[in-house]
Amino acid sequence: MADEKKPGGGMTVREAGRKGGQKVRDQRGHAFYEEIGRKGGETVRDTRGHEFYEEIGHKGGQKVKELIEAGKRRAAQLAQEATVTKKDEGETK
C-alpha cells in the first residue's frame, strides 16, 4: 500500500522517505546520527533503567544460542544426507 503511486505520477511514500533520508545524511553527516543515537540511548537508560539492558542482552544471547544450535542441527542433517546419498550411489554402481 505504501508503495502505490499517487494520482498524477507522484512518487511513492517509500521513494519520498528514501530521498529525505539521503538528504539528511548529506546535509548533517555521520556525527548527527551518532549524536541522536547517544541521546536516544540516554533517554532509554533514564526511563527504563539498567535492568532493561540486562534483559534485552539476555534475550539477544538466547537468540544467538538458539541460532547456533539450529545451525549445528542442520549441518548434521546435511552431513547425514550426504552420507546416505554416497552410500546409495555406491550400491547402484
- Assign a percent range to the helix content: over 70%
Cα distance spanning the termini: 57 Å
In sequence order, what are the helices and strands, one letter per element?
Answer: HHH
Strand content: under 5%
Mean pLDDT: 87
Structure description:
This protein has 2 domains: 1-48, no CATH class; 50-93. It is mainly α and 93 residues long. It is flat, with a radius of gyration of 25 Å. The chain is 84% helix and 0% strand. The longest helix has 43 residues, at 50-92.
Key structural traits:
3 helices, mainly alpha, 93 residues, 2 domains
What's the short story on this structure?
By secondary structure, the chain is an all-alpha fold. Helix content is 84%, strand content 0%.
Question: What is the element layout, followed by pairings?
Answer:
Layout: H1 13-28, H2 30-48, H3 50-92
